[in-house]
Design goal:
It contains 8 helices and 11 strands. The protein has 210 residues and is an alpha/beta fold. The structure holds 1-O-pyrophosphono-5-O-phosphono-alpha-D-ribofuranose (PRP).
Length: 210
């Protein structure tokens, strides 16, 4: 048992495309787990980790409440949540870029007084442009953000770009990369104090060369 208290450490993982990379990475480190059909709670095979499968954008809420002590999440979602956690580790996989994009070849008018942007990342977008003194009008969407310029909701989007395939398929192009997004292992600060030793052990397993 890695845990100090004989209780497994609790870890929230995000549903979706990141999950596959996380599963492979943990398996390489000997922390093997799987989820039975539609189940959202599982244990790694050694019983050291109790793992919750949560919606990506809800993950910081679970960690903030200490329901999951640990969480693996992108810096985009962490920033958006506004919560502050300790960062234990930054992973090499799952990196993306936060970009502003618009229709390919569309004329940019130099006298646009306000940027009109559709995005899931309203806090990031607002903070980013306001820090530069650029007024921005934000339309909040929850997905398929690339549709906004195509249908004329807003000329611009701020969204994650990984392969660039979604932009390309919808005749959009990047105007500017705004920030690199990385995936982190974070911990609730109070949980860290309580389970310091066992968390250190898990982190050293995850950081060990394989
Ligand atoms: C994300 C992101 C882009 C897409 C970028 O969406 O918001 O839409 O992936 O990836 P690409 O550059 O590899 O094409 P996600 O798949 O999470 O779905 P969503 O539209 O529901 O947000």
């Amino acid at each position: 048992m890695i845990s100090d208290t004989a209780e497994p450490l609790s870890l929230a993982l995000p549903k979706g495309r990141l999950m596959e990379d996380v599963g492979k990475f943990f398996k390489q480190k000997g922390l093997d787990f799987s989820f039975d059909n539609r189940k959202l709670v599982s244990y790694d095979k050694s019983g050291n980790l109790k793992i919750f499968l949560v919606k990506n954008s809800d993950l910081p809420t679970y960690v903030n409440h200490g329901i999951a002590g640990l969480g693996i999440c992108g810096s985009d979602v962490l920033y958006e949540s506004g919560y502050k956690f300790f960062n234990l580790m930054t992973f090499d996989f799952g990196g993306t870029s936060m970009c502003i994009a618009g229709m390919k070849g569309a004329k940019r008018t130099a006298n646009e007084r306000k940027l009109s942007v559709a995005t899931k990342f309203t806090k990031f977008t607002s903070d980013y442009f306001h820090k530069q003194g650029i007024p921005v009008e934000i339309v909040k969407l929850n997905g398929s953000v690339e549709l906004a310029p195509v249908l004329g909701l807003t000329p611009y989007i701020v969204d994650l770009v990984e392969t660039g395939n979604t932009l390309k398929a919808n005749n959009l192009e990047i105007l500017e990369k705004l920030e690199d997004i990385k995936v982190h292992l974070v911990v609730n600060p109070a949980y860290y104090k309580l389970h310091y030793k066992s968390i250190k052990r898990i982190v050293s397993i995850l950081k060990a060369k394989t």
